Amino acid sequence: MLSAKTIQIVKEITPAVAANAETITTCFYKRMFAGNPEVKAYFNAAHQHSGGQQRALAGAICAYFTHIDNPAVLGPAVELIAQKHCSLGIQEDQYPIVGKHLLDAIKEVMGDAATPEIIDAVAEAYGFLAEVCVGREAAIYQELREQPGGWNGYRKFEVARKETESSEVVSLYLKAADGNPIADYLPGQYLTVRVDHPTTPTSPRNYSISDKPNGEYYRISVKRESALTENAPGGVISNYLHDVVQVGDQLEIGPPCGEFTLDPEQQDGRSVVFLAGGIGVTPLLAMAKALVAKKSSTPVYFLQAARNSDVLALRGEVQQLVEQNPLVKSLVMFDQAMADELSCGHCDAEGFLTLETLQNWAPLTEAEFYFCGPKPFMENVMSILNLAGVPESRIHFEFFGPKQELVTAG
After folding, report:
1. CATH match for 264-398 among 3.40.50.300, 3.40.50.10380, 2.60.40.3880, 3.40.50.80
2. Where does the FAD-binding FR-type domain start and stop, copy by copy (predicted)?
3. Cα 78 vs. chain centroid, distance in angstroms?
4. Can you give 254-271 as a three-state secondary structure string?
5. Where are the beta strands (DSSP E) in 81-177?
6. Rounded distance, CA 374 to CA 230, Å?
């Protein structure tokens, strides 16, 4: 447990740290990548370039300092970090590297205000959090290793099928190259793909499993991302998977991880509303397909929002669920619909999701809500759910990329 003195000091410095949090985290990454360049392989260069990684870490530090006297509040955040670390193969001996450079960054940014007493308190607070994370990660590694078909690290998988889902999305069906069983997973979890790119060093990438568990293969559905700038190699891996990887090729795959999940065995019949923006359909489709396969009595509402039919992915599989189960209802919205798409039945509505649309389509007062997609889409959904008075306990979402706060209007 943390000492009372450390808790007091951390709470006292929280406003100053919050005011300088992004400056500290930017300094931290620069120092860490310079002092320990080997860890750079774990970080997405595009997220670094956009500042998303720095902002996410800044938010995490502020949250921890704010709740330093009640760390149990941070349980969900710890689980997210632990799952991500296990997907990447982070080990206990890497925590001191982070701690050293974080303390050095605080000293550099805060200057004389970072007294030895303050640095000692922050070091103790970091050590406590690291111990919690390491303990949880050890348990996850053990679970992944010991379950039937499970493994730690990376395992060779062969691309058994490659299917075009839209102008932007392809699906890869992955089977274990060794022919041995594969681990089960909860719908919503992701795989880690490590590629030894021939020209551009890249970090491993996480891709949601887009199909229900089946014991034979994993499926990931990958959106082609364009490069942000010449100096930010966004889209390197997605373009490689689209253009280079073919049926019969092998990829290095990490075990299923992630805390954004839906367990069909735990559903009690309460309605579930899935709100998918673009490629955010992937984890939600796995959840919906698992519910229907279980022959659940749970009413399912599945909304897909996209620019138009050219980029709408996996619509046919959602429609199959509607045809298989009368408890499944779907809605398609295009915000940049092409000519006659609404009149031809390619979509059900045009424009962006509104509270009125959601009220007229789904049971707001009792449903569980799961949503995923681009940040503007997710901010809009969160704003709508807040306006509707949906309690936080019934709201579940996932970011593709560093976890950020959803800033909502109103």
Report:
1. 3.40.50.80
2. 152-263
3. 14
4. EEEECCCCCCHHHCCCCC
5. 155-164, 169-176
6. 23
Query: Does residue 407 register a pLDDT over 60?
Result: no
Report which secondary-structure segment, H or E, holds 323: helix 315-324
Report the alpha-carbon distance of residue 303 to residue 274 in Å, rounded: 6
220 phi and psi, to 5 degrees? -120, 145
Would you state the structure tokens that stand for residue 147, as one six-digit string? 């379950």
Q: Are 331 and 359 in contact (CB under 8 A)?
A: no
**In the Cβ-directed half-sphere of 387, how many Cα atoms lie within 13 Å?**
14
Q: 4-146 in CATH: which number?
A: 1.10.490.10
Q: Rounded mean pLDDT of 191-214? A: 89
Report, as residue numbers or ranges, the catalytic residues. Answer: 95, 137
Measured distance CA(326)–CA(145) in Å, rounded: 39
Per the structure block, which two tokens stand in for 335?
A: 């915000």
Structure tokens at 153: 């690290």
Q: 375-386 pLDDT, tens per residue?
A: 999 999 999 999
What is the rounded (10 degree) CA torsion for 316, 380, 74, 404?
90
Of these ranges, 12-26, 54-68, 335-349, the one predicted with the greatest mean pLDDT is: 12-26
* The domain defined by 155-257 carries CATH number 2.40.30.10: yes
